[in-house]
């Protein structure tokens, strides 16, 4: 429902609504909030908005509107993105500069309490030689046959249809290095329930960082 103070404003708001729900634009995000739960799903209009006529549908200062959305991926996503750093800071001393003491985490448990397996976005931070991340719950792994230097990063996305592997240089330049992935690797997803994730490399991983980000997937809101 569009509500306006006068007819010119109403017409402007109709035009604005039509410009936002333009099927020629890329997918947008439909967000559901009920005060306790927030879910998001990718959606695209299947046509321009419809503005029905009749005294119950429009007047000098109001207009009903109908918008039909298509969602190619049927799952709703949680908005909270999890980050699981390998190095978990515990506390700091008030020295000049940054000085932290923490726990080196090369094994972690990630609980996926959603309704479906979910892809992950992984960042390997160098230095590391042939870094590998294993989902011990499923036996699947992703291994990079390459040496990463200081401030070098590997970005891996396991989303079906969008799988990618990028090498990020210290200056931020990215390049596609899909061929660096070991042929036995699987672009695994987090299964529903408990996932035991382990990080290793052919070198000392002290100080190494592996970040994992993901959204939980739900069948409904």
TrEMBL record:
Protein name per its UniProtKB record: Phage-related protein (Tail protein)
Family matches, as InterPro entries: Siphovirus-type_tail_C (IPR054738)
Domain of life: Bacteria
Start and end residues of each Siphovirus-type tail component C-terminal domain: 113-217
């Amino acid at each position: 429902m569009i509500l306006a103070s006068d007819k010119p404003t109403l017409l402007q708001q109709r035009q604005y609504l039509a410009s936002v729900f333009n099927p020629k634009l890329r997918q947008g995000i439909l967000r559901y909030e009920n005060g306790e739960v927030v879910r998001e799903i990718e959606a695209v209009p299947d046509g321009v908005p419809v503005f029905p006529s009749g005294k119950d549908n429009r007047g000098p200062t109001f207009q009903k509107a109908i918008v039909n959305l298509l969602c190619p991926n049927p799952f709703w996503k949680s908005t909270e993105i999890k980050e699981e750093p390998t190095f978990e800071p515990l506390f700091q001393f008030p020295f000049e500069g940054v000085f932290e003491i923490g726990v080196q985490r090369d094994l972690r448990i990630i609980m996926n309490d959603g309704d479906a397996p979910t892809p992950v976005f992984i960042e390997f931070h160098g230095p590391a030689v042939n870094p590998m991340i294993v989902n011990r719950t499923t036996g699947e792994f992703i291994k990079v046959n390459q040496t990463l230097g200081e401030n070098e990063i590997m970005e891996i996305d396991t989303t079906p249809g969008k799988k990618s592997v990028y090498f990020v240089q210290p200056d931020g330049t990215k390049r596609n290095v899909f061929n660096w992935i070991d042929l036995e690797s699987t672009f695994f997803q987090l299964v529903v329930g408990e996932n035991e994730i382990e990080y290793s490399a052919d070198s000392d991983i002290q100080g190494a960082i592996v970040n994992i980000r993901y959204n939980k997937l739900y069948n409904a809101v």
